[in-house]
Amino acid sequence: MSAKKLSDEDKALWRSVAERVDPIREAYDFAPSVKAKLKTETSKPKRDPIKQFRIGEKPKQPWSPPSGSRTPKDVTPHMDKKNFQRLVRGKLEIDGKLDLHGMTQEQAKIALRSKILQAHSSGKRLILVVTGKGKHRVDEFNRSIVGVLRQNVPQWLRQLPLSSVVLEVTQAQQRHGGDGAFYVYLRRNR
After folding, report:
1. Do you find a cis peptide bond into 66, omega within 30 degrees of 0?
2. CA distances, 136 to each of 109, 129, 145, 177 (Å)
3. Cα–Cα distance list, 18 to 7, 28, 81 (Å)
4. What's the sign of the alpha-carbon dihedral 165, 170, 175, 180?
5. What is the phi/psi pair of residue 145, to 5°?
6. Is the pLDDT of residue 22 over 60?
7. What local confidence, expressed as pLDDT, does residue 1 receive?
8. Which of 111, 183, 180, 189 is closest to 148 using CA atoms?
9. Which DSSP string do the residues of the chain spell out, in sequence order?
10. pLDDT reading at 43 higher than 60
11. 76 or 52, which is more confident?
């Protein structure tokens, strides 16, 4: 598309408008909002300064990886380490399976609540919840969209009444469904 040439009349009109405008003399001082300040303060990770050392010198404190770089196998928030590692590796015996394929969000949420509470009351410990991977789609910004059930099931399991009976939720091993399934480890029925 080529630029349209201005007529002499348009140029004269522009000059008359430009002559009447006073330029801003003072520089505008931008003060970020409180939310912007909080966001920038919390988004920057705080790092300890690196201390000098000599080659061969022992460290003063043992090294541990940063909290954001830990793998799920390192973290055992609710279980003992041995059982948690067995759960992540898929070595624990599965007591039941719940398949949510083809259900709407509401149907899946109702089925998930009733089956998990029923399994807990009957003394079962490990339930395999199959959500499926969802359709592979992208949004208007070319970001991949994860399946609705696959995204929502872990959130539903962290909400009441299920959070009171669920001890741990991890992604299943490939032989049990991989990205489209979750291991749900239940608390002991007391």
Report:
1. no
2. 22, 20, 7, 16
3. 17, 21, 73
4. positive
5. -105, 125
6. yes
7. 53
8. 180
9. -PPPPPPHHHHHHHHHHHHHPPPP-SPP-----HHHHHHHHHHSPP-PPPPP--TTPPPSS-----GGG--TTT--SSS-HHHHHHHHHT-SPP-EEEE-TT--HHHHHHHHHHHHHHHHHTT--EEEEE------EE-TTSPEEPPHHHHHHHHHHTSTTGGGTEEEEEEPPGGGTGGGEEEEEEPP--
10. no
11. 52
> What pLDDT was estimated at residue 57?
73
State the pLDDT at residue 182: 92
Asked whether 129 and 153 are in contact (CB, 8 A), the reply is yes
182/8 Cα distance (integer angstroms) = 72
**Domains of the chain (ranges, CATH numbers):** 74-186 (3.30.1370.110)
Beta strand 137-138 pairing with 144-145: antiparallel
pLDDT value, residue 67: 46
If you search the block for the tokens 């008359």, which residue do you land on? 16
Nearest-angstrom CA–CA distance, 52 and 119: 56
What is the longest distance spanned by two Cα atoms in the chain? 90
Structure pTM? 0.56
